[in-house]
Amino acid sequence: MYSNVFIDLAFLAAAIGIWLFLVFNVVLTFFAFFHGLSSEKERERIFDEPFPFPFVSILIPAHNEELVIERTIQAMLALKYPRERLEIIVVNDGSTDDTQAIVEEMATRHRQVRLVNIPEGEGGKGKSRTLNVGLEHAMGDVIAVYDADNRPEPESLSYLVANLLEESQLGAVLGKVRTINKDRGYLPPFINIEFISFQWLMQGGRYKLFNLATLPGTNYVIWRKVLDKAGRFDEEAIAEDAELSIRLYEMGYRIKFIPYAVTWEQEPEDIRTFIRQRTRWAQGMNYIIRKFLRIAFQMKNRRIMVDLFYLFSLYYIFFFALVMSDVIALLGVLGFVKLGLIGPFTFIWFLAAMLFFMQSLIAISLEGEESFKNIFLSGIMYLTYCQLWIIIVLRSIVLDVTRGRKRSQWDKTQRYRFRERQLDNI
Predict the structure, then answer these.
(1) Strands 151-152 and 86-92
(2) Band (424; pLDDT cuts 50, 70, 90)
(3) 256 found inside a domain
(4) Does residue 416 lie within any of the structural domains?
């Protein structure tokens, strides 16, 4: 059995890194709870006074979406927003299935629906490029972005727009994303809990504490003039939403998170699709870190500087701390190493796992989803589902190194056909 001071120091550094991250998440959980309370009061008063409805262009980037696109357009048509102040633009980027035919047929029945086809030879360059093409055809003062599998709740768009109109410094407003296939298979139930936790902590808690929020890939609105001023979407970025968020803050605009504007979307149901999707997201974060971290100290918005260092800590410092902790623990169990440090480390590890568990419980309670199933899954997430994050981040780093920093390409998440709840007002 091997033991030396370097193993002890590595273990101690890993423990400190993990605990600092967990303690920060505890703080975010605390503020997320109060953001939930204040948001509910805000939702009740938001329509107390009538507001002018600006013209909204909904952009839906689409690439081989025949399984979901019809229901998505139906959900957009069911939005409680004046029809004469709304257009739904589906940007078809080289689909080889029946996406184009389905949208064309719906456009003949609903004048709000428009199809934009990216010319042959100019497509296949990813979501950012597709959104920029859609902007060329959009007439709205406000741009709303939804993914092709989304089912926004009827009042979501009105909630988003009403908030956007309330404060002059708001450049964009985002809502919440929920998992529509959360009860299917073994993976979506975990993703459902992860999404709930992430959005309440990293969007709700962070917004309440630092007045910061990050645009997701869907269910948000942004002023057209602000988007044009920012230079539109970065076509080199995979995580175009997060990248745009940083530029908006640097321009002096704010982004608001409102948890009562909800959309439902599909999530991966098999491990291979999940890892591909999350690797793509991690590569997007790698791009943002490379692009902005080197100029962080030159930024006018110091809160963004802090946020960038948090992102760096999550994807690198916390990542390596977690890997180091797992490796040392595994080698210890196998009898290859022995810690020279003396302390209640088993209890500390157990306490860390319990802290993670309690954070998840608070988050799902904010959604009213504290069922036995979700409580059980929250209890085993740390040792099962969350460990996949190590594989994902490592894979994203390897792909960035081996394949280089290529322009964003379509690597669309697989869609599924299944029976959904009926939408109202169709």
Answers:
(1) unpaired
(2) very low
(3) yes
(4) no
When pLDDT is averaged across residues 74-93 and rounded to a whole number, the result is 96
Same domain for 92 and 183: yes
Residue 405 pLDDT class (50, 70, 90 cuts): low
Q: Are strands 113-117 and 86-92 parallel, antiparallel or unpaired?
A: parallel
CATH number at residue 92: 3.90.550.10
Separation between Cα atoms, residue 351 and residue 55, nearest integer Å: 52
Query: Is residue 395 one of the residues assigned to a domain?
Result: yes
Domain end, chosen from 280, 301, 322, is at 301
CA distance 110 to 73: 10
Residues 10, 54: one domain? Answer: no
- Mean of the pLDDT values across residues 194-219? 93
Range of the domain at 395: 5-24+304-403
Q: How far is CA 251 from CA 293, 301, 411, in A?
A: 17, 9, 31
> Among 190-199, 278-287, 341-350, 386-395, which stretch is predicted with the lowest mean pLDDT?
341-350
Closest to 381 in 3D by CA, of 193, 229, 205: 193
Q: In a 3-state reduction of DSSP, which class is residue 55?
A: coil
Is 300 exposed, middle or buried (CB count within 10 Å of its CB: 0-12, 13-18, 19+)? exposed
Angle subtended at Cα 395 by Cα 389 and Cα 398, rounded to the nearest 5 degrees: 145
pLDDT value at 426 more than 50: no
The structural domain count of the chain equals 2
Tens of pLDDT, residue by residue over 157-184, are 999 999 999 888 999 999 999 999 999 9
Q: What span, in angstroms and rounded, lies between the C-alpha atoms of 419 and 397? A: 38
Phi–psi pair at 265, nearest 5 degrees = -140, 160
